[in-house]
Amino acid sequence: MKKVVAVSYLNTRPFTDGITRGMDASEYVLETMTPSECGRAFLSGEADVALVPAAVLADPRFDGEMQTRFCIGAKGKVDSVYLFSDVPVRQIETMILDADSRTSNQLAQILARHHWKINPEILPPGAPVYGTRYGTVSIGDKAVPLKDKFAYAYDLASEWADFTARFYGERLPFVFAVWVHKNVEEPWLQRWYAALEDGVKHAAESARRWASFYGMTPEKAQYYLTQSIDYELNDCKFTALSLFLDLCGVKV
How far is 86 from 64, CA to CA, in rounded Å? Predict the structure, then answer.
């Protein structure tokens, strides 16, 4: 039996629905948690298969294999990963990170350095701040209701697309999370691949099933899972992922 860990957010429910629907319960045990916890579980050897923040690939402890068919990605606005602030981004002097994802924290710092051309003080999650010239990275389902509480909400996937268009001549998508595995037999992987594919094909059904659980209307949940999130890990996303890892300081 394989230990599988997946993200507890709405955007992962098509995957988990596909797994529970398409695989025999004797083949796996599934646990959901935050993205950063998924990364820690895989790097520590607690999980055989995991949906991890893309930045985990840059961790020197990573020694698994990346699944190359599906991801949590976005072609434009992702509608759930933000930098919030009450001042315009170029006036931000302090940036508070989110405890739940290494990737979004790395992305915000890359954009600060290369796109917005600012050098804010970086603070850990929950750190106290003073004044108004700060930005807060927030991801996942908890980020959505915060949009109305700040004057500015910068969608990081959209900002990444603007950045790549300006400096690389093409609006690239972004890859927030990837599936990884270690020491898993090929027959099991093939059944798992098929389950993930089935889940993605039925994302609209997952939206209707889980909308109320996440405090969303079925229509909003369906738009999010079928329009904001893009699950295919294609060549364009591989290009974007390679660029992101390179900007993180990892040559690929």
Answer: 41
Residues 91 and 124 in one domain: yes
Dmax (CA) of the chain: 56
200-252 pLDDT, tens digit per residue, is: 999 999 999 999 999 999 999 999 999 999 999 999 999 999 999 999 975 43
Select from 16, 5, 9, 50 the least CA-distant residue to 195. Answer: 16
> Are residues 158 and 92 both part of a single domain?
yes
Distance CA 236, CA 250 (A): 19
pTM score: 0.94
Kind plus residue range of the DSSP H or E element containing 159: helix 156-168
β-pair partners for 53: 177
Name the domain count of the chain. 2
Q: Are residues 161 and 98 in the same domain?
A: yes
Question: Distance of CA 68 to CAs 72, 104, 186, 218, 237, Å?
Answer: 12, 21, 14, 30, 10
pLDDT per residue as tens digits for the range 128-149: 888 889 999 999 888 888 888 9
Q: Which two tokens stand for residue 182?
A: 């270690």
Task: Record the tokens describing residue 187, joined without a space.
Answer: 């027959």
| Residues 6+ positions from 67 with CB-CB distance below 8 Å | 178, 179, 180, 181, 189, 193, 196, 233
DSSP character at residue 120: P
Block residue for tokens 């804010």: 120
Range of the domain at 150: 81-168
